[in-house]
Fold this protein.
Amino acid sequence: MGRGKIEIKKIENQTARQVTFSKRRTGLIKKTHELSVLCDAHIGLIVFSATGKLSEYCSEPIRMEQLVDRYLKTRGVQLPDPRDDREQLYNEISCLRRNTCELELRLRPFYGHDLTSIPPHELDGFEQQLENSVLKVRERKNELMQQQLENLSRKRRMLEEENNNMYRWLQEQRAAIEYQQTGMEPKPGDYQQYLDQFQLFNNVQNQTQPNSVLQLATLQSHEIIDPYHLQLAQPNLQ
């Protein structure tokens, strides 16, 4: 009973595919060698595996390079000569050098060199181009300065807002301490009135309340009145 026919398709299992490739590659090289010996044929075999590994066979006594050259000559295929590539690169480099020299000569008048041989109408053109360039530079400079001013103004507003918040917080803390020491219970509407009349600085030192937030920010730390010490109310023990 003969073996069943195997369906020719890609083997999905990687291990099985590698084993099959190894076995069939060995058989293929063996059959190639037998064909070369039996028929006195010149055979070259080149195989790349799925992983990129090269396997080759060439019938003796010729080499693979000789067999490939013979194939190319028979097919009429000519490989490019490396000397032609070098010559082409040399021509391209020479062309780039000429273009660079021409550009440098055209830019020299803009740096104030070789102006004696230039006619007046060309000098007028150079002057106009330089003026246009200066205008563009000034516009860009003014734009950057405007952006910096806007950033500084935004930072100033943020600092002023933070300073105002700190000033209100100090007033509220001082007012709360004063109420606790006097033992008074604030009535509705009296708390805000007390804050409005509250003096942040020590009256003994004849310090007046700052007129603005910036004056408050410039005061030294020793100029601010020391906070009162809180004392817990003792319960009536009688």
About this structure: Residues 14-79 form a domain with the SRF-like fold (CATH 3.40.1810.10). The first strand starts at residue 44 and ends at 48. The beta strands are 44-48, 54-58. DSSP finds six helices and two strands in the chain.
